[in-house]
Specification:
Distance between the termini: 63 Å
Number of domains: 3
Number of helices: 9
Oligomer: single chain
Shape: elongated
Order of helices and strands: HEEHHEEHEEEEEEHHHHH
Structural class: alpha+beta
């Protein structure tokens, strides 16, 4: 009797904990489509939110092949895939998780300043930050940062360290579509008063100052998509500090000044700030 492949042992262990898994071939790629799955005819459709049924005889359609069924994982149809597999992958969305994939040291430095602490897993070039909760997946949400959750797979690289935190608004905001810019209308705009209503009990003044400085830097360093960068930066600041009393008119004015230095009009700054508050229900 042939020995069970080690990667299959790992996959079965993960499946037993409720994590949908699949084998990957060399190059971190899923196994190719069989004739029944040509052009994703098997059910790997853009509107799917969970792995769907498939009549193909092997794990050949990417994230939607992920399963927790040990009978499927051990089946003869999957045997060849496990013999040839180079890694185990899992479907974060199917496990109720979101992975923030940080691909380089700069992205990691950004996450340490901007995101809540959570479980981290070391990767070849960076880190995976894992949160509890799901959202749409997206690549390139900022330099060196991808989001892997629904309809996406991630390599299993070990359990990592730390406690899994709830998916924060600042991560959800990374994929929010930016409203179309309003036509600039020359007029003087005063930075709006923040929405907070009390003393900030969960952040220190140093944390706020660091966050505002990073937001200014992000806007200043934007080389393209300045409108999108301004909106997402406002959204990130408000999601962290907008519901308490730590933001002042001075802080908001600093953000507006940085945006206008990149060519944004005062009217657009106000619209972006208002849209961000509306998006967060403020």
């Amino acid at each position: 009797m042939n020995a069970m492949p080690e990667l299959l042992r790992v996959a079965l262990h993960l499946a037993a904990t409720g994590v949908p898994v699949l084998p990957l071939r060399a190059g971190k790629l899923p196994f190719g489509n069989c004739p029944a799955c040509a052009r994703s005819a098997c059910g790997d459709r853009p509107n799917m939110k969970v792995p769907g049924p498939c009549v193909c005889p092997a794990p050949c359609h990417g994230w939607a092949a992920a399963t927790t069924d040990p009978m499927v994982l051990r089946s003869p149809q999957w045997a060849r895939a496990w013999r040839e597999a180079a890694a185990v992958a899992y479907h974060p969305g199917g496990a109720g998780l979101t992975v923030v994939d940080l691909d380089n040291p700069a992205a990691i430095a950004w996450a340490r300043e901007a995101l809540p602490v959570t479980r981290t897993v070391a990767t070849t070039r960076g880190e995976h930050w894992i949160y509890r909760g799901t959202m749409p997946s997206a690549n390139g949400v900022r330099p060196g940062v991808d989001i892997k959750s629904r309809m996406q797979y991630a390599r299993w690289l070990g359990p990592g360290t730390g406690t899994v935190a709830e998916l924060p608004d600042v991560v959800r905001a990374l994929i929010v579509k930016v409203p179309a810019p309003a036509r600039p209308v020359p007029h003087t705009v005063i930075a709006p008063t923040p929405a907070g209503g009390g003393e900030c009990r969960h952040r220190t003044p140093a944390f706020l100052e660091r966050g505002i400085a990073m937001a200014e830097q992000r806007i200043t360093e934007a080389r393209e998509a300045v409108h999108a960068t301004v909106y997402r930066t406002f959204l990130a600041v408000l999601s962290t500090h907008g519901r308490c009393g730590c933001l002042t008119e001075t802080h908001v004015a600093r953000l507006f000044t940085a945006a206008q230095a990149k060519g944004e009009s005062p009217r657009h700054c106000t619209d972006a700030w208002t849209n961000a508050r509306t998006r967060l229900g403020m």
